[in-house]
Structure prediction request, 1323 residues.
Amino acid sequence: MPVVKAVTCPVCGSLCDDIELTIENGRIVKVKNGCAMCEAKFLGYCCEHRVLKPMIRKDGELVKTSLKEAIRRAAEILAEANYPVLYGWSNTSCEATSVGIELAEEVGGVIDNTSVVCHGPSILSIQDVGIPSCTLGQIRHRADLIVYWGSNPWSAHPRHIERYTSFSEGRFEKSAWRGYVTKIKALVGRKKIQSAIKRLVLKKPSQISTHLEPTFVSPIMRKGRKLIVIDVRRTKTAEMADFFVQVEPNKDYELLQAFRALIRDQELAVDKVAGVPVEYLEDVADAMVSCDFGALFFGLGLTMSGAKLRNIDAALSLVRDLNMRTKFIIMPMRGHFNVTGANTVSTWQTGYPYAVDFSLGYPRYNPGETSVVDVLLRKESDAALIVASDPVSNFPHKAAEHLAENPLIVIDPHMNVTAQMADVLIPSAFVGIEAAGTAYRMDHVPIPLKKVVNPPRGILPDEEILRRILAEIRKIKKKQEAA
Amino acid sequence: MMVNLYPLKELKLPIVAECINPDIFQGKKPAEIEKLEVWEGNKQKKLGELFKAEIAETEDASENTVVVIHGDISRVKRIGAGMKNGEIIIKGDAGMHLGEEMKGGKIAVYGNVLGWAGSMMKGGTIEIHGNAGDYLGAPYRGSTEGMKGGKIIVHGNVGREAGAHMHKGIVKIYGCAGQFAGFRMHGGTIYVQKDCEARTGACMVEGTIVVSGRIESVMPSFTIEGVKKKVKIEEGEVVETPFYLFLGDLTENGRGKLYVAKDKNPHLSHYEKYL
Amino acid sequence: MELLIRNGFVYDPVNGVNGEKMDIAIKNGKIVEKVNERRAKKIDASGMVVMPGGVDIHSHIAGGKVNSGRLLRPEDHFKDFERKTVTTRSGVGYSIPSTFTTGYRYARMGWTTVMDPAMPPLEAKHTHEELSDTPIIDKASYPLLGDWWFVLEYLKNGQIEECARHVAWMITATKGYAIKLVNPGGLEAWGFGRNVNSIDDPVPNFGITPREIIRGLCKVNKLLNLPHTIHVHTNNLGKPGNYVTALETMECVEDLADGDKPVIHITHCQFCAFKGDDWRTFESGAEEIANYVNAHSHVTMDMGQVIFTDTTTMTADGPFQYILYTLSGNKWVNHDVETETSAGIVPFHYRRKSFVHATQWSIALELALLIKDPWKILMTTDHPNGGPFIAYPRIIAWLMSRKAREATLKKINPKARSRSLLPSIDRELSFYEIAIVTRAGQAKALGLKNKGHLGVGADADIAIYGFNPEEMEPSKKYKAVRRAFKRAAYTIKGGQVVVKDGEVLKHMDGATMWLDVQLCEPCEIELNEDMKRRFKEYWTVGYENYPVTEDYLAVSHPITVKADV
Prediction:
């Protein structure tokens, strides 16, 4: 049975590229090295919800049609539109996004990728403050302090910790795995003791406030890499942490600003910030200042709550300020496997990472104005193309409603909620499984995606479908000019 | 000269019409005005395809050009952008980037206004009788060039980040303000007569913010300086009630002044122990 | 396809042609002896200047760092945009233009070959994807190798040949063109927030000095017979007093020179020609540098001219960019790359009225005018570090006209003016010399045999400028010079007319040049178990996914190099 090595996993922004797949009769039968999400994708992508034929809406019903007809209809819709939106792009290749941008320019539309509903706000703050960052290997080799803020890699980026951070093995820093095991043993031991006391004394053990609970175990117990987790709830990742700070919901900004003041050795005129005693914050701030190389990862828990984009402004400023004292970097935990690539291609071709409006014939950018969600909320668009995304199920209700009212073209391998609303539905190959291309890891390292099996008959990659639509639109425009 | 503009239809697509500007209209006949170029969605159009222009000669013999727009033009962006003289009166709602980079003259809106009104403003006056959206007087993405002068008056409420990166000028809000009013402010004055959401004055370096209503919270990176009996907003406008005075933002080594009315904010009384 | 350019004043320094009125014949993208006069398309260049297409040895136009700069600065581009036309793509400009706009703007000025000087090997695919999206011009990129762990380890152990073999592998794997060193050793130190302070300051954890890295890679460069020399951004860049470091860097490879062949290129030399102990006592070290270069033949350099404008500084020199952030308080991007290098970005505004900035402006011009041999000092702005490349016409005017320099001198900081050497310099470059500093010298330093000249067999990359040297004196009519170079009358790329009267006529792909370095014995590095093991330890990307395959290049133009190892 052929085994394909060094396959890149098209699931999350970690883009692990060490996956080994066993292929039997043109199907993937075994996945090695991957996490549960990776296995589920490679083994389960060919599920029953797969669309196998292009479809077009006739009298309110989606009916099967030829690819040629579907492309012709899609081209007509876009060519006629006065303000079309082209959305998705984070689950496809850079090559497809590149054609998508050319298409958006040709039809004078707004092209936006899913970062508008994930780390778009983070980008807005990067544009105000900048970002001290690095590639993930740098963290593996050097970081002796890892902070996860509003992010739970244990479930969302399962191999992040093992490949790049706490449990990875670097040149100057060793894996903290052993220390973690000891700690878990100690914790289990302590719990046993506590329950024993409870049983014996019939009295509750003294309550320690939640954010303090497991935290004082490890700093004494081991040297080497330390882990700080800051979140509104105790996640699985938090269980492993040396310090866990439970922040009051929507108060991350205050906490970040407090840290900024503390690392400047300023006195705070309050006792508690975001529900956490200031003395405890001072300990955490000390840990940040006294490390040799710190790395702060933040997730949507930080980007989408309370102060939103300004949480990131404060986080970036905190890390920038920490560089006066030590080496510190910061990185967003990107979700979709190629959302970074969609931003990257868009930036080199148009100057802007997302929410690019071509309606005046040149790229314009102003999230809030040119971002697809806002365009839909204001009911401005009059046609839509969705590629490899399911906005109807994750946009605000009103935006999804307007999207469904637009003539809607969907290119996707799956029959998702958005696809069910489509006027034209063109099935596509899975990028990274049935089609090759390039994706960018969350740290902006480009990694090739492999084609390991053939797509079902007649199914094309996104890139090719988009090229054909573009060619068809140019044909229509030529005819119009001639007429 | 007075120019009346009447929308010819319900405007659905976004429209970019920076030509609606008294400096550009000045001395033009209606037919010439109707020939000015605008964008409706992705199509270039003439202003006359969207608006009917009429000129009513005023008795006022001055050179002042007054543009009056009748109706809802909340889809029309960049009205009065960069204007230096004259007056725009909008009898209805107005779209984004109203009076962006305005240098002089006057804009009055009898309705609501969407985001970025008075963005990067340098002079002149904008008066909004309804509500204003986010980023009132704030700079473009990535820029620190906030308001450098002029005056914005809003009689209703405003969205997030009003007066962000402001250097000079005054913003008066007679309603409530959203989060981050005066974010990264470097100078000038913001007055909020009613309530303020959290993070007012975050990262401010200099300038003055006065909140007469209830403020959700004061950033932990501000320190209390004292209690003042009254605060002057501008020439001829003084609010006579006791105010807590906070200084910040410590994270930026700032010395900005945040005045918060004492009576409306009993939840801040614990600061008094530091006085 | 045949083309005949008639009656232009031709400046072709490689072939000694100095403003003679002559015809240039083109066939199949190359310059030929003659073409069929009746069949050929004719361009009347009478009363115009004809030169080889411009070559830029150092301009950051593509890759991760450039793109982070674009992302960082919407406020830089939103007022400078280019609309889509029937033939061209849309884009944005100013200090970090989008890729399409970059290609068009170079072509409009008559430039046809541009080298991106800083490619982090791990992110080489990104650089190549952008280069492939940069239309019209030919291009290449230099992988950053001065802080690569393999290099540090082999050189530390004195294994020059082993080092050379790995460098050869790396250049070919990244589709690179030359060996780039940026603050050698300093970037590794920056991994922990430190730096090195001189060429003899040991690199933390590696027990090697910058001097050893520079000398080692210089030897490697020779062993591999690479067409360009090592391309060096010196230690201590951007710090007062660093002209000493620049001199030491040049001196440290003096003994490696063979005859008159250069062995080192000091890039954007203005930034390492600072004298003084701090910013208050800051002054020009151009004279000292020029004296050295005038007396030695193993060095080429480029200017790194400063332009008074708002721009975006970006280098692989992470610690330098951090200092720039602390000086300016502007937004700051840092991007360290595992095992290899780092990068930093800070927006920066050069102001006429600033003493330091005005002195920097003067230093670059002093270097260009005091170094006697124009083949040794090439014109750049280190785009976008000193200013965007669209400022080249202004620099040409300053070089050609004392009057133009005086006009600017009048407006700068008075203290900088009074200390500037420029008023004492009468030299004004001729068109012949301009052709050297903007194309012939650049191509020669790069070892590009088919570029930078108009001899038979050369690539038909040609620029025609609307300036009549018989009727006008460039030193007096410097504004006309500026206009002429801003919008070429014609730009011909590979024998095709791509620009006419400053307008781009067509969108076409340019080639990406790269070195296919062939070792004496076929090297087993790619399959070597040791290499695989180290790959796993050093990088977070598998060795199978690391190299840049040729399909990342829109038009691949490999140049075969036979190495001595």
Notes: The interface with chain B takes residues 72-76, 78, 331 of chain C (CB under 8 Å). Chain C has 18 helices and 26 strands. The CA atoms of residues 183 and 235 of chain C lie 4 Å apart. The domain at 2-52+458-504 of chain C is CATH 2.30.40.10 (Urease, subunit C; domain 1).
